[in-house]
Amino acid sequence: MSAWKTISESRPSSNRLIGAGLLSAIAASLCCITPVLALIAGSTGMAATFSWLEPARPFLTGITVVILAFAWWNKLKPETKEEIACHCEEDTKRSFWQSKKYLSIVTFFAASMLAFPYYTHLFYPRSQPVAVIAEPGNIQKTEFLINGMTCKGCEEHIEHTVSQIPGLIEAAADHRNGTAMVRFDESKTNIEEIIETINKTGFTVIDFTFRE
Questions:
Q1: Cα separation of 72 and 101, whole Å?
Q2: Per-residue pLDDT in tens (0 to 9) along the chain, 212 residues
């Protein structure tokens, strides 16, 4: 009975550990989940809310992997004689929350969260700017330096939002360089309107450069 009591007492702490791993996986991807939530909610201003978490992403990912690896090791390791002796009582008291099925679901969900930046673009419609017939002399190409982009989802969010501006011809953002290259008809829109639109997403334009 004492062995069973020891095993039972260890389970709440084990579940708390698994919960911590799940939370760290969610936190690691919040910077990329938020732009998608902003798109769905129609609240573009919250897109960059958790971009400050990006530097901690490798650390949070590592925590998640270590916790879940330990949880699986603990679940699959060879049983001790005391644990084997408690099997009968354990089988009658074991719940879903102590099962491999639960741990499998948590692991799958955590992996989906950690991989979110790699498929976040799938949530965005492939909208293109309205076809613009512009005089060659009115076409302006400008590169904007933007603070807060952390993943493909951020790129998609900026491109999707900017593409709604009348007179916008093309927009291509790159989170690795923190830039967005925009071509537009300056007779229908201007630099100030584009900057204001980008800033409304929660990201911030800190500079811009005219390009040929």
A1: 11
A2: 444 444 444 454 677 888 888 899 888 888 888 877 777 776 666 666 777 777 788 899 999 999 999 988 888 887 666 655 555 555 545 677 778 888 899 999 999 988 887 888 777 776 555 555 667 778 899 999 999 888 888 888 898 889 889 889 889 999 999 999 999 999 899 999 999 999 988 889 999 999 87
Cβ-in-10-Å burial (0-12, 13-18, 19+) of 212 comes to exposed
As a whole number of Å, the CA-based R_g of the chain is 25
Backbone angles phi, psi at 179, to 5 degrees: -130, 165
Measured in residues, the chain has a length of 212
Would you kindly state where each structural domain of the chain is located, as residue ranges? 2-119, 124-211
149 and 175 Cβ atoms separated by less than 8 Å: yes
CATH topology (fold) of 124-211? Alpha-Beta Plaits (3.30.70)
Gap between the terminal Cα atoms of the chain: 79
- Taking the C-alpha atoms of residue 210 and residue 48, their distance in angstroms, rounded to an integer, is 25
Locus of tokens 């201007």: 190
CA dist., res. 185 & res. 188, Å (int): 6
